């Protein structure tokens, strides 16, 4: 099994081939690289290609004025 960054995979195979291997549009590959997303491409021993992304939890920032704390009941 080989693990490389999406940017490295694209440098080796190109955006169109990367998109085809991962089952997405080329524009998704371009946007992921441009925005600096932490995507790792995994190539298993059979040659199958898939990817995973490491993201912080929770991944979306909460709005300051729209948050409620479930434990702050009065």
Automatic annotation (TrEMBL):
One Gene Ontology MF term: DNA binding
Alphabetized InterPro entries for the sequence: Cro-like, Cro_sf, Lambda_DNA-bd_dom_sf
Pfam families named in the record: Cro
Superkingdom: Bacteria
GO biological process, one term: regulation of DNA-templated transcription
Name of the protein described by the UniProt record: Cro protein
Native organism: Sodalis ligni
């Amino acid at each position: 099994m080989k693990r490389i960054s999406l940017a490295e995979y694209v440098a080796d195979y190109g955006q169109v081939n990367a998109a085809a291997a991962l089952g997405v549009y080329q524009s998704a590959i371009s946007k992921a690289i441009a925005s600096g997303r932490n995507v790792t491409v995994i190539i298993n021993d059979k040659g199958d290609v898939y990817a995973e992304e490491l993201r912080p939890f929770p991944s979306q920032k909460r709005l300051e004025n729209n948050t409620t704390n479930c434990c702050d009941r009065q």
